[in-house]
């Protein structure tokens, strides 16, 4: 769990911008993923998460900026980069005509570090029949088969693109369990995208929130939780408009009482509240979901805060 | 050692572990010298990041609730009893604070609360 190995940075993206026609899919992305951490990408569908991941895997050539994975360019040197990455995506396109055993034999040929004992252990714990055809498996079992072949060579970097999307809670637990086990092996790193924020909260060390191709918040999970609070303020005079308060991300309320998720050192927020003539009547910590909603729904308020 | 995580009260996960281990020690369900599960085992059991468990164990070590013995594992400290009393009082203090805040909002004075506590104590 402590960073080990040659470079402390596994993925380094600097100023990456990507256009598809008139659409800006990625807008000046800067991202550093340290070795040995779980790095989460959150954003609504179409925010740019998958495009970002495709740059990491070298499936998209960088137009502007630079991408380095294990200090190499994944487009110029795919063999040395991809052999160290395990990848599972939402549209888990395994060959439907193969059996589970054939899929294992086929995949192991690509990876010198393949571990037969580990593959067999995963196959049994996932309840996958060796002779079953991939195409006849349920969506959940297909996801488990995809996870098996992504894990069995013990990759240094595991990349998961919306792995839990549309899957039942038991498969999601297997996927999260795999993330936990991989990160417990020192020096291994996980990059995963999800819109299931409670899962993200359980396993991520760092989180980047992406909105319309831009990173709007990138921080350690502990810092995100420590620096955001939900405050309810009471004003002596009823207000028709929310107050202007430094650090407030999104207001809800009417009349005397207004509630906002606030960002920043709590002493500064408290001082700003008393300067505005209000008093705090409720104060709570917030989860990642509340931070996400506050950050995404009011981009203008967010720009004010920073 | 049974830890139960909840997402309802928005207490950070590492702090939920810290509080529950303290509670288990204070209530005698974890005894002095007993070994806590290894970080990796607890992380897999709760399906959370091992770094979160490590952080909770570090906090517990700083608070003197547990001690690391060389590299073998993490054990409940021997100097458990005075701490246990302090932790017991701390748990109650949090409940009392919540009671006082609610009483203030309902316009019930502290003397009335104390009378009410005595009445309830007799009737238990």
Descriptive account of the structure:
The complex is a heterodimer of chains A (306) and B (124). Chain A is elongated, with a radius of gyration of 22 Å. Chain A is built from 11 helices and 12 strands. In chain A, helix 5 runs parallel beside helix 6 (169-184). Residues 1-5 and 299-306 of chain A have low confidence and may be disordered. In chain A, strand 8 and strand 9 (214-220) form a beta hairpin. Chain A folds into 2 domains: 9-223, 3-Layer(aba) Sandwich (Rossmann fold), CATH 3.40.50; 226-305, no CATH class. Chain A is of the alpha/beta class. Chain B has helices at residues 13-26, 39-46, 50-62, 81-105, 110-123, and strands at residues 66-69, 73-76. Chain B has a two-stranded antiparallel sheet. In chain B, strand 1 and strand 2 (73-76) form a beta hairpin. The radius of gyration of chain B is 18 Å and the shape is elongated. The mean pLDDT of chain B is 85. The chains are: A alpha/beta (306), B mainly alpha (124). The interface between A and B is medium-sized, with 23 and 16 residues.
Summary of the model, kept short:
The complex is a heterodimer of chains A (306) and B (124). Chain A has 306 residues and is of the alpha/beta class. Chain A has helices at residues 49-56, 78-82, 100-108, 116-125, 139-151, 169-184, 197-203, 221-227, 266-275, 288-297, 299-305, and strands at 9-20, 23-34, 38-42, 64-69, 85-89, 157-161, 189-193, 206-211, 214-220, 228-239, 248-263, 278-285.
């Amino acid at each position: 769990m402590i960073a080990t190995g040659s470079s402390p940075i596994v993925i380094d993206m600097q100023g990456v911008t990507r256009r598809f026609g008139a659409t800006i899919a990625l807008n000046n992305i800067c991202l550093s993923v340290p070795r040995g951490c779980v790095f989460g990408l959150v954003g609504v569908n179409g925010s740019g998460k998958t495009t970002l991941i495709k740059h990491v895997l070298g499936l998209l050539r960088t137009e502007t900026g630079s991408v380095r994975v294990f200090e190499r360019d994944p487009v110029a040197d795919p063999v040395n980069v991809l052999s160290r990455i395990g990848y599972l995506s939402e549209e888990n396109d395994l060959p439907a005509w193969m059996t589970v055993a054939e899929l294992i034999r086929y995949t192991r040929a690509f990876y010198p570090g393949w571990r037969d004992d580990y593959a067999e252990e995963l196959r049994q714990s996932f309840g996958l029949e060796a002779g079953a055809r991939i195409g006849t498996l349920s969506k959940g079992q297909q996801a488990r088969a995809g996870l098996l072949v992504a894990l069995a060579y013990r990759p240094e970097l595991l990349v998961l693109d919306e792995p839990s999307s549309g899957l039942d809670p038991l498969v999601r637990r297997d996927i999260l369990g795999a993330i936990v086990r991989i990160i417990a092996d020192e020096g291994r790193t996980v990059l995963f995208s999800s819109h299931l924020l409670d899962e993200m909260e359980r396993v991520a060390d760092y989180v980047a929130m992406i909105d319309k191709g831009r990173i709007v918040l990138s921080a350690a999970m502990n810092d995100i939780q420590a620096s955001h609070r939900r405050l309810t303020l009471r004003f002596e005079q009823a207000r028709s408009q929310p107050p202007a308060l430094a650090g407030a991300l999104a207001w809800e309320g009417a009349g005397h009482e207004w509630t906002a998720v606030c960002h920043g050192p709590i002493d500064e927020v408290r001082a700003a509240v008393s300067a505005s003539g209000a008093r705090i009547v409720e104060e709570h910590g917030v989860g990642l979901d509340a931070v996400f909603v506050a950050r995404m729904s009011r981009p203008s308020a967010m720009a004010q805060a920073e | 050692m049974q830890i139960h995580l909840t997402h309802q009260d928005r207490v950070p996960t590492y702090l939920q572990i810290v509080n529950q281990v303290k509670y288990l020690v204070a209530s005698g369900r974890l005894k002095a010298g007993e070994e806590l599960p290894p970080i990796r085992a607890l992380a897999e059991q709760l399906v959370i990041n091992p770094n979160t468990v490590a952080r909770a164990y570090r906090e517990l070590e700083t608070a003197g609730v547990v001690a690391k013995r060389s590299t073998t594992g993490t054990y409940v400290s021997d100097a458990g009893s005075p701490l246990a009393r302090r932790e017991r009082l701390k748990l109650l203090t949090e409940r009392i604070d919540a009671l006082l805040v609610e009483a203030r909002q309902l316009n019930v004075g502290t003397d009335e609360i104390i009378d009410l506590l005595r009445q309830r104590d007799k009737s238990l």
